[in-house]
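Hey, I was hoping to borrow your eyes for a little while. There's a protein on my desk that I can't quite get my head around. The fold is given in discrete form, as structure tokens running alongside the sequence. I'd be grateful if you could look everything over and explain what you see. Here's the protein in full, and shout if anything looks odd to you:
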Amino acid sequence: MSKPKRNKTNNKVQTENIMLFIFPVILNFVLLLISSIVAVYADLQKSQNYIVSLCIIGFTCFASGVLSGKFKRKNGIITGIIYILPQLTLLLLISVILNSFSIDLNIIISTTVSVISAAVGGITGVNMKQKAKRVKK
């Protein structure tokens, strides 16, 4: 019996999909950790810390949208939003664990910024020009 052939392009697509889900979560975690450390030593007020974390969340969602739009090359808005769902879920889960979870204005603003940033990032990623591939002579 012969072994079934593994489709290399299918494996590559699966790896890209996994990285598109994991990379923004890791980036968000690292940047929020750094901002938390800076906030402790810089003695930032709660409102200033919230603005910094909101900017970081917006940036990482935008980056996630750009990456997903660049790889998928279609449906930028939907693709961007789909690929931030794990990040939003993780942030909401952390919020539930650390606080008594309640839907307040800060949660609504964070979620709105995340979705809009990811959608704009997805549109940007889809519309980015691909590098021209060189043909070997």
User: Anything to note?
Assistant: The CA atoms of residues 93 and 99 lie 10 Å apart. The longest helix spans residues 8-42. The chain has a mean pLDDT of 78.
